[in-house]
Structures are given as C-alpha cells and as structure tokens.
Amino acid sequence: MLILQTLAKPLITTTITISLRLLTTESTLQTQLANPPSPVDPSHVLRVCTILYQQQTSPDPRLHANLRRTFSDSEPTHEFFLQVCNKFPLTWRPVYRLFNYTQTYPTFQHTPVSFNKMLGVVGNSRNIDLFWDLLRESGQRCLANDKTFKIALTTLAKASTTLAKARELKKCVEFFHVMNGLGFGYSLRTLNNVVETLCESSVKLVEEAKHVVFKLREWIKPDGFTYKCLVKGFCEVGDLVEASKVWNLMVGEGFEPDINAVEKMMETFFKTNQFDEALKLFQMMRLKRMEDLGLSSYRLVIQWMCKRGKISQAYVVFEEMRQRGIEVDNLTLGSLVYGLVVRGRVREGYKVVEGIEKPDISVYHGLIKGLLRLRRASEATEVFREMIKRGCEPIMHTYVMLLQGHLGKRGRKGSDLLVNFDTIFVGGLVKAGKLLEATKYVERTMKRGLEVPRFDYNKFLHYYSNEEGVVMFEEVGKKLREVGMFDLADIFQKYGEKMATRDRRRNRAVES
Question: Looking at residue 90, what DSSP letter applies?
C-alpha cells in the first residue's frame, strides 16, 4: 500500500474562463414552454410500435406508407416519440426507423430531450457505429448538452470492457475533441459531470474515467472535484492502490482532499481490514484539519471501533466529539450500544438506551443485534416488543435479524412437524407459487445431502407482504404457540399485521 502523503493546503489557482456554446436556442425554449406536451393515445402508440417491430427490416417506402396511415389525421409529436422509445429500451432499430420517419415532416424538430432518449436506446443496444454517427449529428444540430456527454461516455466506456477496449476508450477521448471542433469547447464542468457519473457505485467505470481525465489533461486541467470523484470511485471498487496514487497526485498538485474523499478512504481501509491505516488517516485529519471533522467522520470511526470491540477507544473519540460541541445522533449511539452489548456489558448498553430521549430504529437495532450475537434471542424479542410499544415501527431488517437469531441462517429443523423448518418455509414457498425456489431447496437437502448455506428470509417475507400473508402468519403463529414458542409466534404475527396495514395504505392511496 502506498503511504499517503501529508495533507497540503490548497494553492491559489487562476480562474479559467471557458466559452460555452448555447445548446438550445431561445426560440426553442419559448416554443416548448408555450406548447406543453399533449396527451398521447396508448392504443395509437401500440399500433405504431407493432408496425415498427413487425416491419423493422422493411424498405423505407413500405414502412413509411404504413406509418402514414396511422398518422392520417395528425403528425407525430415529441411526447409520442418518447413514448415509443420507452417501449423499446434495448432495441435500436424500431426507434431509429421512427426517427427517420419523423424527418419526413418539415415541422418536426427534435430537441435535446428526444435526441438523448434515442441515444440512450441505441447505446443500450450496443450499436456503437450508429451511436457514434448520432453523437456527431447531435453536435452538428446543436442538440448536445451535459446529459449527451454522460450518455456518450458511459456507453463508450461500457463498450470498452469488451474485446475492442482500446478503440472504444480512444473514442471516449475523441468525443471531447469532436465536440470542441463543432464549437462546444472544452469544459471542466462537463468533464466533472462525466467523471462523477462514471465513478458512481451503480456504474463503476472508474478506470475508464481515469483514462479520459489523464488523456485530456493537456486541454482540460482537472481540479479537486475531479480527483475526489476518482478517489471515491477507486474506493468503491476496492482498489486502494490506485486510490492512493490519485490521492498523492491530487495533494502534489496543491489540492486539499475533500472531507467526503477522506471519509471514503477511511471507510475502505476499515472494510479491507486495514484498521491501522484508517486510524492513521483519522489522526492526520485531527492534527492538520480538525475543523473539517464533523459528525459523519466521528460516527464512521466509532462504528468501526465498536465492530472491532475497541470500546475504550470508541469512548475516547465519542468524548472528543462531545467536547467539540458536535451533537450526537442515534446512529452513533446505536453503534456504542452494539459494541457494549457484544462485549458482555449488557447493563451499560441498557443504560445508554434509557438515557436517550427519543430512541429510533438504529438504537434498537444495535441492542437487538448485540443480544442476538450473545445468543439471547428471547431477550432480543422482548426489546422488539418494547420498541413497538414506544411507537418505533420495525422494518424488514428487524424481522430478518430476529428470525435468524431464533432459527439460524440455515434454518432450524424441529422434531415437531408443526414447527419444522421445511413445513413453515418450504411449504410457504409452495403456497406462494414459488415452486422453483422450493425445488432448489429440496434438491440440495434431500437428493444431494447438502446443507443449504443460507435461507433467504428477505424473499420469503416479501412473498407474503400482502393480505394473504396475514392468514398464513396467523396460522403459523397459532401452531408455534401450541408448542410454546411464543417469541417466534409474536414475530410472525406482528409481521403479518404490519405488512397488511402497509397494503391497505397503498390501496387507499390508489383509490384517492
């Protein structure tokens, strides 16, 4: 692991003025505001989509003639075009054929919204050659905006993960040059928006983002926000080596690491079992930039100290936070409660909970989770009952924790058929119509003689989150009470009642 360099103060940088080309003319905006989208007939959209799908390979004259029959009394609108794009999110040909058809109407002018919608469909279908041509056309028509850049770079970067990696990565950089040649100019704001999108946890294309940033350094100089996105992106994928390299480069260029980037680095160190490195970074922040440390930073450190059983150190950090006047939240207190209970200091954990004026779900979760770790499931269920009395509504995670505490992650097989794991859960899957899940379970346990590694309580509870589930959970609760398992009976019945209430709320919202 590379050693993090000393945090440096930010250097004074000169402001670079970048001329930006207007992407949408004033007249177009006025037209859109004056003419709001008119409602679209769903049956008309269905007829057009059927023609586009069935005749997507037909010659243009034949296809256009059939489409004109459907538009005999009207012309296609932008809203209609968007509706068709929504019907074909992964198929480029029907959308592109409709796009060509709209060009036969002189009065139909595409907007950045409609053009970006089509670009998204073509990009999702991985037709890179057509996608590249449409990108250039969007620039020539002055319809490109920041969203166009995001769609372009995300699609090209995803395509670069295939065999043609070098070619598509080159296109990512070339796109900026092409747009500059069409008058859009090199924009740091646009680059940062693109890098932020590529580094998001749902996308995870940070390697491609880094390639674009470094290849464009001669034309667009990255700033602290650019480096922060890269650091967070590499932390998301668990690559601390690259994150440290970008961090050192950022500090070397005079940019002060953002507190969000610092917290992300600490969190990644904690997650990868590099506890000492995380504390070194935290100590560095305490010495150099104490004023930047806030509630989120202290909460992160306290949470992981409690997970590692370092309660005394956690209390030191906790007292420092209070002395600085930072208001303690329930998430931090919940972590302390969990840490105390897990270490066997249950009374102290209860005292902390009793001292909280308005405990929320995070506090109760810390207490319940700690008791379950000590194999005190019955006591955890009492806490569950108490939180409901105080008006704190349990969530799905609450029930999953309690069921795992009582039944285990693999499920418990009782000698009594009424409370046998297979009878309750596998039988319930069959009743819910989830035959595939039930069959997989039976095959692994009966035919192959293997233990199921973990039963998915989330899916099972989700299957019965409806009115039918109330009846099922009531029956299971009665059977459990017959054999004296009152804790499990309360958990199942409470879940059924809460889920039924949630369904009724949904129904009332729909009716109103």
Answer: S
Give the type of residue at 4.
L
Alpha-carbon torsion (105, 111, 113, 116), positive or negative: positive
CA dihedral 404, 405, 408, 411 (to 10 degrees): -60
Cα–Cα distances in angstroms (integers) from residue 412 to residues 40, 164, 399, 415, 489, in the given order: 55, 51, 16, 10, 15
- Domain ranges in the chain are 294-393, 410-511
In this predicted model, what pLDDT tens digit does every residue of 356-394 receive, in sequence order? 988 999 999 999 999 999 999 999 999 999 998 888 888
**Residue pLDDT, tens place only, 202-254:** 888 999 999 999 999 999 999 999 999 999 999 999 899 999 999 999 999 99
CATH 1.25.40.10 fits 294-393, yes or no: yes
Distant-in-sequence, close-in-space partners of 188: CB < 8 Å, separation ≥ 6: 16, 18, 220, 221, 222, 223, 226
DSSP secondary structure code for residue 105 in this structure: -
Q: Is the full-model pTM beyond 0.85? A: no
Calpha distance 437→431 (Å, rounded): 12
